[in-house]
Amino acid sequence: MFDHAKTFERAQAACASRECWSPFPEMPKLYPDADIAAPAGLAAFEALLGQPFALDLPGVTGWVGEEISPYTQAPLGITYPQADPDTLFAAAKAAIPSWAAADIDTRLMLLMEGLDRLYRDHLFTLVNAVMHTAGQSYNMAYAGSGVNALDRGIEALVYAEQAMRAVAPSARWARRFGPSEIALEKTYRLIPRGVAVCFTCASFATWNAWPSMLASLATGNAVILKPHPASVLPMALTVRVFRALLAEQGFDPNLVTLCLDTVAAPLGKVLIKHPACAIVDFTGSARFGHWVEANAHPALAFTETSGCNTVVLAGAEDLDAAIRALATTMCMFSAQMCTSPQNVYLPPVIDTPAGPVPRDVVAQKLADAIAALTQDPRKASMILATVQAEPTLGLIGWVREQAQSRGRVLLDSRAYPHLDFPKARTATPLLVQLGKDARDLYAEERFGPIGFVIDCDSAEDALAQATTDARNNGGITGFLYARDEAFITRAEDAYAQAGAQLTINLTGAMPLNFAAAYSDYHVTGLNGAGNATLTTLGFVAPRFAVTQSRRPVRNDA
Amino acid sequence: MFDHAKTFERAQAACASRECWSPFPEMPKLYPDADIAAPAGLAAFEALLGQPFALDLPGVTGWVGEEISPYTQAPLGITYPQADPDTLFAAAKAAIPSWAAADIDTRLMLLMEGLDRLYRDHLFTLVNAVMHTAGQSYNMAYAGSGVNALDRGIEALVYAEQAMRAVAPSARWARRFGPSEIALEKTYRLIPRGVAVCFTCASFATWNAWPSMLASLATGNAVILKPHPASVLPMALTVRVFRALLAEQGFDPNLVTLCLDTVAAPLGKVLIKHPACAIVDFTGSARFGHWVEANAHPALAFTETSGCNTVVLAGAEDLDAAIRALATTMCMFSAQMCTSPQNVYLPPVIDTPAGPVPRDVVAQKLADAIAALTQDPRKASMILATVQAEPTLGLIGWVREQAQSRGRVLLDSRAYPHLDFPKARTATPLLVQLGKDARDLYAEERFGPIGFVIDCDSAEDALAQATTDARNNGGITGFLYARDEAFITRAEDAYAQAGAQLTINLTGAMPLNFAAAYSDYHVTGLNGAGNATLTTLGFVAPRFAVTQSRRPVRNDA
C-alpha cells in the first residue's frame, strides 16, 4: 500500500481549519527541478501531437479527435480510441466488486498515489495539454488546472474518508427481549452506487473532474470520463495514469475509462440514460446541466454549470485599488472561468474617503484599467491568454451590437497580438454599460471576455439587483466593495440567501475569484449554477450506500 | 437553552459504536408512573374524540377529518384545520431566517426537548392515537411507534450535528501572491434548503416522520407535515407540541405546520410541485414513491416505500425454533410493516442436524406455527393487532383466489375475534404456496397478512430467486436460515448487492424485523424500496448548503 498518510492527515487538518495549505508549490518555477521538468513536459506533449493516443480501452470501435489549439488554431492531430458505451458500462460494472472490497485505506492511498503521479510525472505535460485545449496561460494551467486541481482532488478524498468512517464496520449489540437475551454481531458494508459518468468542460476540465472522479472512486465506484470533445487530452492523460496504476496494483483498470464523442454526434444523453449509470457529475452549460438535474434520475446528479457573477461597487477606501483588482479579475483567462465577475452594479455615486465619485467616472476608470492591463501584448498574453472557442468571438460581436443600440460601449474588444503564438485566438474584454431594462442581455452568463456595467438607483438597489440576478440566474461568486459596515452585513445576508460566495473589499495581487482548495467552498447548490459543492459531505456521502447483516453472536467469534 | 447534552452525547456514542442503547424504557410497564400515565393518556385521547382538534394554523380554509379506528371501525370524529398550501409555504418560508440564524446547539437542544415532551407528556396519548389510526397493538404503539421512533429522531439529530460540525464556522487564511501577502477572514454559513414536506403513511407514521422532520428542522429548514388522511392524529399531536415549544422559545411556530388532505382530494402532487418545496420526505406506496423520486426535482427527495421482503430457509440448527421465529414475525402487526417478511423461498429439502426435511413438511410446519400463534384470541390480538385499511381484506381475498388456481393455500385467513374490541377489523395470515412461475403474484409487496412459500430448485436457487426479487422489486429486509457457512457468506454478498438488510439464523424472542435505532440501518437506497437510509450522513447532509464570505483581515478583528 502506498504511504501518503502524512499528506492526507495534513489535508484533513486543512479541511477542518480551512487555513491555507497545499503539498504542492504554487508556481511553476518552484516545482522541483523545474528547469528539467518543464521542457520535458513540453517535449512529452509535442510527442503526442499528430499521433493516435496510446490508451487501451475495452470496446474500441474507432478513433476520433477534433481538438484545436486556441494558441495555434491548428488541430492537435491527436486521435483517441472511441469505445462503445455499452461495453464501457459493462466493463466498469465488472471492475467494481474487487475495488469495493478493498479496504478504505487501500483505495485512498492508491488514489493519492494517482494524484501524486500526475504531479510528479505528468504535470508539465498536463500544463501544455491544458494550454492547447482550454487555451489557458502557462501559469494558470500550472496553478488552476494543475496543483490547485490536484488539491481539490485530495480534498474530495478527505470528505470521502470522513463519510465512510462515519459508518462503523461492525458492532456487538445485545438486548433483553422478554425472557431471552439476544446478542447480535453486526457487520456493515459500504456499497458503491455503481458506474459514475463524469462530464468535463472545454475550458477547465481538471479542476472539476479530479474531485468528482476521486469522490466516486474513493467510495468504490467506477468512473467513465466523458470529456468535452474540444478538451480531451488532459482527461486522456488522467485516464492513462489511473488505469496503469490500478492494473499495477492488481485492480481492474476498467474502473477508469474514457468515453469520447464528437460535437456532431454527442453521447451525453445516451450515457446519462444508460441503465447502468448510477452517478452523473456534470460541468458545462447551464442548459444541459439543468437537463441533467431533471433527468438523471435514477442516477444521482452533481452539477456545476455557469455563473452569472455579480459585483456591487458601492464604495471603496481605495477606489483605484478596487478598480485595479476588479479589472484584473475580469481579464483573467478572458473571463472564461465560471467564477469570473461579469456584471458590475453601480449606484449613481460611489462612496470614497475623498467624497462621492459619479458612476460614469467609475465606469470609465474600470474601462481604462482594463485597457491598461491589456495594452502590452506580453502582459495581455499572461493575463488574457486565449479564447477557447470560436463562437465566443461571435458572442462578443452580438453583445457589442446590442449594447450600441441599448446602452454604450465603454471599451471595445479587439484581438491582441500574442507574441509567442501569432495565430492565437485572442480578444480583449468588451465592457458595456446598460440600464436595468437590459436584464435580458446581462442577467445570464455571457461566457467570455464580456463585462457589463449596470446603472442602479442606489447602493441598496445595486445590491438588490445583483443578488436577485445571482439567485435567479445562478451566481457562483459575488464581489462587494463598500465602506458602510451595516451595508456589508446586509450584503452578506443577501448573498448567502442568493447562494453566491462573497468576496468583500479585496484588493491586491490575489485574483478576486481565486478559490482555494481546503478553504473555499465552490458552488452552493442554492441557485441555478449547479447543485453540488466542492467539497462538502453532501458531495460524497450519497455516492455509497450502507448494507448490513446481523446474526447471533457465535461462541468462537 | 434546554440541556439535553448528556443524552445527546450518549446517543452520539451509540451511533458510533452501534451498540444497544436508548434513554427510554422499552416496555410500557417500565415507563415512570405508568399506572398513572397510561390511563391519563387514554383519557386525553378519549377527550379528543368527536371534537375539533385545537391547532392554530395559518391559512385555515375548513375542517376535515376522516379517521376510522381499525379497532372500532367507527369514525374518530376528530376534525382538523385544513390550511391552504400557498399560505403554509409562505408562512414556513417566513419562519426560516430566525431559526436558521440560531446556533446549532440551540436548535438541537430545542428539538431534543420536543422529543422529550412527546415522551414525558404525550406518549400514552400517542399510543392510543396510533392504535386507533394505524391499528397497532398497544405494545407496538408504545415501542415501535413510540420510544423507538423517538430514538430514530434523536439519531437523526446526531447525524445532522455531525454534518453541520464538519463545516468550520470561520477561518483565517493567508497566502503570498507575488509581492503581497493576502490575509483573509472567512465566515461560513449553513443555509437551509427551505421548506420540507414530510409525507407520512397510514400504518407507521411516527417512525419515519420524526427522523425526517428532525433532520430537516435541525439543519434550519421548516417542515410541513402531510399525514395520510387515515392517520392524522399522531402527526397533529406532534405538530402541536413542536409549535407550542417553538413559540415558547421565541421562534416562529410556522416552522412546523400540518397540511391535511382527504382521500377524495389529495394534495400530494400540489405540495411536491409547489415552487417553494425544497425537500420531500416520503413514506408510502412504491408507486407514488417512484413518482416522487422522478418528479420532486428541484426539491430533494428522500423516500421509503415498500418492501418485497424475502426469507431463504436452506437449513437450521433448530428448525422448529426457526419456524417459530419466522411465524411470529410474519404475524406481527398482521405483516403491515415495511420490514415484514413476505416471501419464504424453500429448496426441495431443508438441511437440519437430524437430516434433510422435505419442503412440504417445512411449509406445513410454518402454516401450523402461524395457526398456533393466532388460535387464541388474546394472543392473536397482542401479535396480529388489527388490519389498518379495509382494502387489505380485499387483497387477501384476491390472493387466496389466485393461489387456489395457481398453487395451494397452506393456511387460510380468517377474522379472529378481538376480546377488547369486538368490532375490530382483523385477519389472520393467509399463507400460500406457489411455484416460481407465479412471480407476478409474489414478487412485489402484498401489504397485509399475506405470506408466500415459493418452491425453488435448490438452496442456491432459493438465494438467487430471493435476492433477484429483492433487488428488482425493492427488498428492505432479508432473512436467512442456513447451516453452511460458505453459503451464508455468499448470501451476505448477494443480499448486500440486492440492497436488503440481512438477518441470519436468528431465533428467540426478538422480532426478526426489529430495527434498532442507533444500530440498524433502514433502507439502503440500492433498490426500489426507497432512496434514503435511516440514518446516514447522506440523509442529512444535503438538507443544507454552505455559503461563505471572505474579506481582508481587519486590524480590530
UniProtKB/TrEMBL annotation, chains A, B:
<dbReference type="InterPro" id="IPR050485">
    <property type="entry name" value="Proline_metab_enzyme"/>
</dbReference>
<feature type="domain" description="Aldehyde dehydrogenase">
    <location>
        <begin position="68"/>
        <end position="491"/>
    </location>
</feature>
<keyword id="KW-0520">NAD</keyword>
<dbReference type="InterPro" id="IPR016161">
    <property type="entry name" value="Ald_DH/histidinol_DH"/>
</dbReference>
<dbReference type="InterPro" id="IPR015590">
    <property type="entry name" value="Aldehyde_DH_dom"/>
</dbReference>
<dbReference type="Pfam" id="PF00171">
    <property type="entry name" value="Aldedh"/>
</dbReference>
<protein>
    <submittedName>
        <fullName>Aldehyde dehydrogenase family protein</fullName>
    </submittedName>
</protein>
<keyword id="KW-0560">Oxidoreductase</keyword>
<dbReference type="InterPro" id="IPR016162">
    <property type="entry name" value="Ald_DH_N"/>
</dbReference>
<dbReference type="InterPro" id="IPR016163">
    <property type="entry name" value="Ald_DH_C"/>
</dbReference>
